[in-house]
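pasting for the record
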Amino acid sequence: MDIPEKELWHRWTGQRERCARDALIQLHASWARLVARDVYLKVRIRDAEWADYVQNATIGLIESIDRYEPWRSVDFRTYARHRVRGAVFNGLRHLASDSFGQPGRVPEERSASLKGDGESDPLQAFVSWTVGLGIGHLLEVASLPDDRDRRGDPYAAAARDQLSELLHEAIEQLPEREKLILTMHYLQHTAFVDIASHMQLTKGRISQIHRQAIEKLRDRMRMHAMAED
C-alpha cells in the first residue's frame, strides 16, 4: 500500500529513514524531469545532452529533499523549484566552461566574477554568464599571434577580424581602470590576485570591475548586432 507523502516526510525528517527518502525521490522524479525539460527547451549548450539536464535536476531534487523543512508549511515543489533549476544551470556552467577551450581552461576567478549571483532569474543569470565567457574567449583569441591560415573561408576570416576590431574599439571607450584590468587579464594573462596587488585593490574589487567592464562590452556588442539587423 502506498504511504502518504506527509508520512514519508515525517519518516525522513523525523527518523531519517533512507527508504522514505528514496520514496520521496521517486515521487518527485517526474516533476524534476519537467523542470529540466523547461531549461532544455530554453538553453542548449554544445556537448550537453538531455541526460546531463536530468542528472543535474536530480541532484538538485535530492539536495532539496535533504534540506526541506515540511513544518514550515511551504509546498515542497515551490521550495525546490529554484534549487532544482539552479542545479541544472550549475551543471551547464561546467560544460560551457569546457566549450570555451580545454577542460578547466577558464580561470575559476573569471568564471566566478561573471556568474551574476544577484540575478533573481537563474536563466537570465546563466545567459549573462555564458555571454560574458564568450566575450572573454574572444578577447583571449584576439591576444594570440595571428598565424591562421588565410587560405580558408575568407568570409569567416573577415568576420573574425571585424569582431576583433569591434572589441578593441569598445575596450578603448572604457574607463581607464576597466581598460587596464581587461588588458592585464586577457592580453597579458595576469591573474586577478596579481592585478589587485598592482592596483592596490582587493581581489574582490578587481572581480567586480572586471564584470562591469565585460557587461559594457556585452551591451556594445548587442547594440552593434541590432544596428546590423
